[in-house]
Design a protein that fits this description.
This protein is an alpha+beta fold. It has 3 helices and 2 strands, in the order βαααβ.
Length: 107
């Protein structure tokens, strides 16, 4: 069950990441997935018989968590880190099963 009034994925409890089909569709659009290729409809239309969340959506909860940690770090001498200016070099994602169209994940 998801809260349809929420316009972005949320971390309701520490270590929990809640999303729904709208978040999955926005993610697909952000990657350039479009309706010009009919096979992409399953990533963009929630009532498609094969609606699917892109497997790489799994990186989003980790980035959200990382952003929150970095944004609230207490550094010496009043130093601050802007997460938008950090160079991201590499990460690994292993997906064991497809993501549900809506869910609450443990990060």
């Amino acid at each position: 069950d998801t809260d349809s009034s929420n316009s972005a994925p949320s971390e309701n409890e520490q270590g929990k990441f809640k999303y729904d089909f709208k978040d999955a569709i926005l993610y697909a659009l952000s990657l350039g997935i479009s309706t010009t290729n009919e096979q992409n409809l399953k990533f963009l239309y929630e009532n498609h018989s094969e609606f699917s969340v892109l497997p790489t959506f799994g990186v989003i909860p980790a980035f959200s968590n990382l952003f929150n940690v970095i944004s609230t770090m207490k550094l010496p001498h009043g130093l601050q880190i802007d997460p938008a200016k950090i160079l991201h070099g590499e990460q690994f994602l292993e997906v064991y099963k497809p993501f549900a169209s809506s869910d609450t994940l443990t990060v």
